[in-house]
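Hi V.,

Quick status before I head out on leave. The structure for the redesign project is tokenized and pasted below; the design run finished overnight.
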């Protein structure tokens, strides 16, 4: 089982890393407590506890009703420069992260932009004033605030968290550029590209907005790559860390051991590994299988009982069942179940968009041997074609950060939730299977655009089915999670 990563750990490590590497420099304010809550999707108690811990370590100063101020001063000599070492030890990973941002964020921002109005963007006017001010700025925080506003309007529980994680990891090289050249300011050309974005936000011209964001990020990615190459030549003694990599944990704070087990069992019940009406493995076997205590297994089984995926009979064991509408709708009153469901819908929304740039990178690598392997997997009665295709894409992806994002999302996609809607479970002939197999046929024909479109439609289809069902069951928050693309396209 994976070790639980708490929201406290994430916020603490994120802020501490930004302070130690100079992203927040001596004398500069941290974001307000309410802004930290919004960016990191944590409660005010978590923020206060983290700020208290950083204060105790002497990294920040806090006062009532004022934002915290950084007290830490990083070392300055070139042979001891912590920022320089941090960057060059991660130079390949950082270059790939900027490349991932340039590929992934433009379609995410353009999707978000067509879903909101200027009134919903709290930082729209400060952003326009920032653009009009001209040269002299070093900070990118004002654009960042607006971009967080955009992502919030999609209804997703994941997009702001993802963007914050990418920002935190990627901003250190930008700090280093200021360290190396104290006169550095954001280039005028970048300001012009930001102005082009400002002119289009918000709006319905999704492709134009996507292109404007791509034109903004792509040159930054190239500049960072070139800068890292030059710095590595200047400082050859700083070696790369072999295991340095971008990471993102979308289930952070919700990945208790018993939750991981209950999700896995739901997946297996819904997909028919454990058929409805049959007994699940005994408590002892589940303890051995998941390497956890009996108390943890009992808590997981209790969760299945509450959610309507199992019935435990004293002295006999636990029987797998498929939940009826009444049970599912009753569960909507449970905050944990509601949160998990919204997280699941958010993951589908993100996958529908992120799969397209992933396909753009891997399609040339999906040769005859890959197609033959997939065809063999499709012939298995318990196979989920979309899952097999995704696994292939993940294995072939050359960009580690994009792979980490897709894999993190995929962990939240329990196929059992979808197939539980069908009486024959995984063996049902569903529109999802038709779409997935049509995507495969596009792959065989060399139709990259058709392949990408079909895969995106697969995730939109699941999102549409489950979202509509949950809204009917009383989960009104699901209405906020917007479906990225039209799900009625024919195959």
């Amino acid at each position: 089982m994976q070790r639980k990563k708490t929201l406290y750990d994430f916020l603490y490590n994120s802020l501490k890393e930004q302070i130690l590497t100079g992203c927040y420099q001596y004398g500069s304010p941290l974001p307000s407590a309410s802004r930290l809550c919004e960016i990191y999707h944590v409660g005010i108690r978590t923020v206060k506890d983290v700020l208290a811990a950083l204060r105790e370590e002497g990294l920040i100063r806090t006062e009532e009703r004022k934002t915290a101020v950084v007290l830490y001063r990083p070392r300055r000599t070139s042979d001891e420069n912590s920022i320089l070492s941090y960057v060059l030890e991660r130079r390949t990973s950082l270059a790939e992260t900027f490349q991932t941002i340039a590929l992934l964020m433009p379609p995410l921002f353009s999707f978000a932009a067509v879903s909101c109005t200027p009134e919903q963007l709290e930082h729209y006017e400060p952003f326009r004033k920032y653009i009009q001010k001209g040269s002299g700025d070093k900070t990118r925080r004002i654009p960042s605030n607006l971009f967080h506003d955009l992502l919030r309007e999609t209804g997703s529980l994941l997009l702001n968290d993802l963007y914050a994680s990418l920002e935190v990891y990627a901003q250190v090289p930008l700090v280093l550029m200021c360290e190396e050249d104290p006169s550095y300011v954001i280039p005028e050309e970048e300001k012009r590209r930001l102005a082009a974005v400002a002119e289009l936000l918000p709006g319905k011209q999704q492709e134009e907005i996507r292109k404007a964001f791509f034109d903004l990020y792509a040159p930054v990615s190239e500049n960072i790559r070139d800068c890292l190459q030059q710095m590595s030549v200047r400082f050859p003694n700083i070696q790369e860390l072999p295991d340095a990599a971008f990471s993102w944990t979308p289930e952070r704070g919700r990945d208790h051991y018993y939750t991981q087990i209950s999700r896995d069992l739901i997946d297996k019940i819904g997909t028919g590994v454990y058929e409805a009406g049959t007994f699940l493995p005994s408590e002892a076997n589940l303890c051995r299988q998941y390497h956890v205590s009996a108390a943890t297994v009992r808590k997981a089984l209790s969760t299945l009982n509450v959610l309507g995926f199992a019935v435990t009979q004293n002295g006999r064991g636990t029987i797998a069942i498929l939940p009826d509408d009444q049970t599912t709708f009753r569960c909507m009153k449970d905050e944990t179940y509601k949160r998990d469901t919204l997280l699941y819908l958010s993951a589908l929304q993100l996958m529908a968009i992120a799969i397209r740039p992933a396909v753009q990178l891997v399609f040339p690598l999906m040769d005859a041997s890959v197609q033959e392997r997939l065809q063999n997997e499709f012939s298995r009665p318990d196979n989920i074609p979309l899952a097999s295709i995704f696994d292939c894409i993940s294995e072939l992806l050359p960009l580690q950060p994009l792979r980490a994002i897709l894999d993190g999302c995929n962990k939240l996609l329990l196929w059992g939730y979808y197939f539980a809607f069908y009486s024959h479970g995984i063996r049902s002939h569903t529109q999802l299977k038709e779409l997935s197999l049509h995507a495969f046929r596009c792959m065989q024909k060399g139709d990259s655009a058709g392949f990408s479109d079909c895969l995106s439609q697969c995730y939109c289809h699941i999102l549409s089915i489950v979202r509509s069902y949950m809204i009917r069951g009383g989960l009104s928050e699901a209405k906020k999670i917007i479906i990225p693309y039209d799900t009625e396209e024919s195959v």
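Above is the designed sequence. Residues 76-242 form a domain with the Four Helix Bundle (Hemerythrin (Met), subunit A) fold (CATH 1.20.120).

G. will cover questions while I'm gone.

Best,
W.
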